[in-house]
Amino acid sequence: MPAHDLERLVIGCVQDFLGDGRQVHNVFAALDVDSAVLTAIIAQAAVRANDPAPTFRSLTTRIDVHNDRVDILVNVGSLEPPTQAAATASVAPHLLSVPIIRIRRGKEVRLIIPAADGAPQQDADPALIKLLAASFAARDAADAATDQPLVEVARTQGYSLDYFSLLLRLSMLAPDIVEAIHDGRQPLALNRQRLARMTKLPIEWAAQRTALGFI
User: Fold this and answer.
1) What is the pLDDT of residue 86?
2) Which residue, 35, 64, 99, sits at the end of a domain?
3) Which domain of life does the protein's organism represent (predicted)?
4) Which domain holds residue 63?
């Protein structure tokens, strides 16, 4: 997975969080923080939203990449003004969890991440996204077990051979189809049930677009 994809995702998410005064307020709302201190924290967060990339890396305490999401722990305690050193000492790192899809383009694995403009994905189908995430996880498992029969790999992953084979075929969807599903731009008739029944899904990308109703 290219490091620049992950860095771009992390920086974008931390920027969005810091620039959203309501989110920052909610993190500290349950604590006994003086209103003046809270106002200063929100102002400090807004300023740091424009910091250079190295600063964002210093704000994150942990980054975990899963098949369907990236979890980012943000050191929100560092947002306190220097004069209020003890005010946020008990604040635990704040978790930002971002849905993703990992797709293959040749031998390279790429992250499909939310649009750079932060546009809402109102029509995204979580069940479809989860199915695609499972398909790429199946491909990873198959690639990592080249010395095992496919039926054994399927059994290890908890699938029948037929369903595992379907997941492998779905992992070869055209990248633009995967991106459209992640962004919620798939045809209205395309849902998880329909895609999971596509046992004869074409290999050619152009034929896939036709079969799934994209053209």
Assistant:
1) 54
2) 99
3) Bacteria
4) 3-99
